[in-house]
């Protein structure tokens, strides 16, 4: 007597879907650290498409490989100032789908601010000397790749200090400075337009931009032109 059952053939373990490997391009001028990163990320399951000693070859590698993630040092050849983080900004602009992790000994405040200004997703900034555990670093890379933001507390502290001491007048364009100077002389928009040989509409746009950059929203009581001039005079004093 025979019987049949509705059993199914088990799927071999090798046929199970595997997690997608994250492709990475590294920019690091120190050969020891570069090779160390390649070994670390390779052992953690990342695909290291390229490891570059300078910003120029790094950007070429990004263009060629279109990685999921880049790990970038700040100071690289030839001047060892800001080539690396400038390259990271290029990646953010030209390859918005690529996550960016800056790994450096330094906090380049101006460029770090710019790096975070457009969008805060899929970006990180860690200090080499403060990475105490390689597994934490790998976890940080995965978080950035997943759309998260990972910032060293020291980076956050320095950026907050910079923001508190930032001079809003420094954000004005040269033409906006000209307009503000003439406002300080009591000129009307039409008089400013005549002085600068531009239309009155252009002056109105400059004035509106000045109010925005100096954080002077419309109010019922305060005259924004006076407040803008006071900001200028405070800087001179």
Automatic annotation (TrEMBL):
Keyword Transcription regulation recorded: yes
Ranges in a coiled coil: none
Boundaries of every Response regulatory domain copy: 23-143
Transmembrane regions listed in the UniProt entry: none
One GO MF term attached to the UniProt entry: DNA binding
Transcription regulation recorded as keyword: yes
Stored InterPro entries: CheY-like_superfamily, NreC/VraR/RcsB-like_REC, Sig_transdc_resp-reg_C-effctor, Sig_transdc_resp-reg_receiver, Tscrpt_reg_LuxR_C, WalR-like
Record-level GO BP terms: phosphorelay signal transduction system; regulation of DNA-templated transcription
Phylogenetic placement of the source organism: Bacteria, Bacillati, Actinomycetota, Actinomycetes, Micrococcales
Protein's UniProt name: LuxR family two component transcriptional regulator
Keywords: DNA-binding, Phosphoprotein, Transcription, Transcription regulation
Sequence ranges assigned to domain HTH luxR-type in this UniProt record: 165-236
Domain of life: Bacteria
Modification 4-aspartylphosphate occurs at: 73
